[in-house]
Amino acid sequence: MNAIVSVLGRDKVGITAAVCVKMAEYRINILDISMTVMQGNFTMMMVVDLEKMTAPFGEVVEACDALGKELGVSIRIQRQEIFNAMHEI
Amino acid sequence: MLTQKEIFATLEMIDRQHLDIRTITMGVSLLSCCDADANAACAKVYDKITRSAANLVRVGEDIEREFGIPIVNKRISVTPMALVAAACEAEDYVPFALTLDRAAKECGVDFIGGYSALVQKGMTQADERLIRSIPEALDRTDLVCSSVNVGSTRAGINMDAVALMGRIVKETALRTADRDGLGCAKLVVFCNAVEDNPFMAGAFHGVGEAERVINVGVSGPGVVYHALQGVKGAPFDVVAETVKKTAFRVTRMGQLVAQEASKRLDTPFGIVDLSLAPTPAVGDSVARILEEMGLETCGAHGTTAALALLNDAVKKGGVMASSSVGGLSGAFIPVSEDEGMIAAAQSGVLTIDKLEAMTCVCSVGLDMIAVPGDTSAETVAAIIADEAAIGMVNNKTTAARVLPVPGKKVGDSIEMGGLLGSAPVMPVHPESSAAFIQRGGRIPAPLHSLRN
């Protein structure tokens, strides 16, 4: 099962690193990653594999929320199907 | 492969354009709960609902979290209670409503619908008992919603039931006068009621339905409004295409949530209801969509045409996105629940007469309209009759949910809070319809040929 991790907020050093460490902590494998900074705004999108995830989904959502607060950005993890449903026929 | 643009487009719809799933509604058949003893029947009703919907709220919340999409309400609809209660000797049906309320609270849902009677052709003793109990039932419960079907294209309009409902609406308003007639917000009078509607107050689980079923209602006026801002000044075919594409996306999300809920609850998937359901939040209004098409204020000349286009395009886009579409499926125009409608009504541009015309081309009908407290029962009944006639002749579902707010006059406003919003008290015609309503009997079903 794949999920999309999206990160939005003011850029600063270490956002990508911190998010990747958090994923590794839960044994969530990163399949694809893209990141841009425009006028100081940081956006990152990751496709991740939840196959070997070590905690229930809800706990990971909470961990992402908490990390987001710490870094001053919004971090969301959502099942990929919702995006597929909306953008693919 | 998904692009970053697509992903952020979805996130923006959720964050800024109020995209949500309005409701996951579980339909539960109560036909197996009939019993000659009212207490035994109530016990069976309570058991069956709480057993069937035990996990509904938890599953809804799980889906919400995993997919990152808000699911605003979780609801239950049940078999019209008049059918279930008919087996027992009891004359007072209020205990059935109290039972539904208790069961809904136990399950943690937002509303339970189905305190209903279907009387389009005639009333059984049970139907009449249920209808007469509605004011007390809605006064003494918090989550119970009630509906009565008074007409259909095949049966005509039961004008005795219409007259009775005029009185019942008035009585419900008086009994809940301390809450500005809030009981009436939970009471809807239908023509051509559908059996798989997930929306309140009119949801009930029809007798043609399975034991249990999952129906989902989507929302999304904000998303459509935003999409139309991108095609300013373009011809109407471009407008229609834009609405279709947007409705497709919104409905696909509803379909996904419905399938997921159906799987997790081990309950068959019924339908996705394609309705554009507004909320009182700014940016989530159907009226503002119509205004975006070029009308200065919703209610101006051209509003009916704009709504016709919107309603049709929503259906065309949505139908392809779901394996099974049903319910009410169209744009809702509840005045109190739509920020733009409230503003248009307050400015006096949007009148009940215009709203009535709008209901000819869109979903449902005169919805959540506050009228002066001194409006007579006959006038309320006549408003219901007009709406029922539109539904009957046009082969569509129409309804009236009117609140004659005790003690309030035109210019006053009532505040109901939450999804129900606030409503300016709108003027009704003061001329009497009493002699018309007092005739009673039935308006015959319309001819199905020679249609003009």
- Order of neighbouring strands in the sheet with most strands of chain A: 2-3-1-4
Biggest sheet descriptor of chain A: 4 strands, antiparallel
Radius of gyration from the alpha-carbon trace of chain A, in angstroms: 13 Å
The N- to C-terminal Cα distance of chain B equals 50 Å
What is the end-to-end distance of chain A? 20 Å
Could you please describe the fold and organization of this structure?
- The complex is a heterodimer of chains A (89) and B (452).
- In chain A, strand 2 (29-38) and strand 3 (41-49) form a beta hairpin.
- With 89 residues, chain A is of the alpha+beta class.
- The longest helix of chain A has 15 residues, at 57-71.
- Chain A has helices at residues 15-25, 57-71, 81-87; strands at residues 2-10, 29-38, 41-49, 73-79.
- A 4-stranded antiparallel beta sheet of chain A has the order 2-3-1-4, with helices on both faces.
- The model of chain A has no long low-confidence stretch (mean pLDDT 94).
- Chain A has one domain (2-87): Alpha-Beta Plaits.
- The longest helix of chain B is centred in the middle third of the chain and has 29 residues, at 236-264.
- Chain B is globular.
- With 452 residues, chain B is of the alpha/beta class.
- In chain B, a hairpin with a 6-residue loop joins strand 12 (413-415) and strand 13 (422-424).
- Chain B has helices at 4-16, 38-52, 56-67, 81-85, 94-107, 125-140, 159-175, 221-229, 236-264, 286-292, 303-321, 339-346, 352-358, 377-394, 434-438, and strands at residues 21-28, 71-78, 111-118, 144-152, 156-158, 187-191, 212-218, 269-273, 325-326, 364-372, 398-405, 413-415, 422-424, 442-443.
- Chain B has 2 domains: 25-191, Anaerobic Ribonucleotide-triphosphate Reductase Large Chain; 217-439, Anaerobic Ribonucleotide-triphosphate Reductase Large Chain (Alpha-Beta Barrel), CATH 3.20.70.
- In chain B, the strands form 2 sheets. In chain B, strands 1, 2, 3, 4, 5, 6, 7, 8, 9, 10, 11 and 14 form a 12-stranded mixed beta sheet that branches. A two-stranded antiparallel ribbon of chain B has the order 12-13.
- In chain B, helix 2 packs parallel to helix 5, helix 3 packs across helix 9 (236-264) and helix 9 (236-264) packs across helix 11.
